[in-house]
Amino acid sequence: MADDEDIDDDLGASAQQKSSKIVSLLLFVNIVISGFALFKILALPSEPVIVNTISADAEEEVDPELPGPLHPFEPFLVNLNEPGGGRFLRVTIEVELKDEDALLALQNNERRIRDEILRYLSNLRVEATLGETNRLRIQDGIVGRIAPIVGEDEIKRIYLPDFVVQ
Known about the structure:
By secondary structure, this protein is α+β, with helices and mostly antiparallel strands. It contains five helices and five strands; from the N terminus they run αβαβββαααβ.
């Protein structure tokens, strides 16, 4: 009888060790796969999405194919408007302008424009940042914040070469 109990204890301990090893192995594999997937997602080359904001009248005056002066902003890092917080958006914005005068107006008002963009971006929810359609809306929203400061027809395009939601 005592021998049967010892055998059962040995079998129970052996099964518990095996299940513990299996759980540890599965956890390790999950971490490796998740890390690899995250690396692949973050390593994807981000192509800028282009929004053309030139009106019909302005297209006659400025050739849209010729690039205008480009103003890159320092990257924006904002908390998204989510219950409980914890979600953020990192985005780099480049503004292509119609001419050098528009570039000078933007540079002279950069602090004000950066504040406007920060307030706009921090009011977004995660759902409003996902997908191409929403990114186009974000670009239009940025144009809507910058245009009154720089000039209504002075912005040719907005580029978002770096756009990460986490």
